[in-house]
Amino acid sequence: MKKIMIFLIFLMVAFCFANVEYSTEKSLIDISRESAIPIKKLKEVLQIEKDISNQKTLAELQIDSTKFVTGLQKYEETKSTFLRGIVLVGMLIVFISLSLVGFLIGQLQNLHLFERKKVSPKIDEKTHSNNEIAAMMTIYLHEKEAEQQNNLLVTWTRAPVNMWRASNVNNFPNNRYFKESK
User: Fold this and answer.
1) Does 98 have pLDDT greater than 90?
2) Phi and psi torsions of 28, nearest 5°
3) pLDDT tens, 132-148?
4) Is residue 139 part of a domain?
5) pTM
6) Alpha-carbon distance 173 to 8, whole Å?
7) What is the span of the domain harbouring residue 84?
8) Is 41 among the domain residues?
9) Interior CA angle at 154 toward 153 and 160, to 5°?
């Protein structure tokens, strides 16, 4: 079974790399479809005038197969440069747009549009003793610790819920009958 699969894989690879024979009796449109070359580029590569009809065959245009094959090879060589150019232009556009967006976001940060004005508490001019300051700090730290503890309790514990009651499964029409029978 493995040998058959390997043979089939090699056979498919051979078909993929097989040379395609183009008949001189095919029209320019047919050749364009088979070779995936736009008609304008095909005319340019084969050095045909642009005014000539696309329905004419290679034999009518007096183009032999060697000239056609060299034209296809020339197109394949230049095709990669076209693709590289398109990819580079696309990457350049994306890079410039991303850097422009980053710059604009950085400038919006300097405008302070979304900042809230913080109200600072008024400080009494009266100086407090060390004992009073220690008591205030202790109360403040105790409140912060209690708040953090409550946040953890909300996060880690949940109220027990009876899912049957929550989804009202027990509220069916004959509910009274079952309650009375007990």
Assistant:
1) yes
2) -65, -35
3) 889 999 999 999 999 98
4) no
5) 0.39
6) 68
7) 23-107
8) yes
9) 95
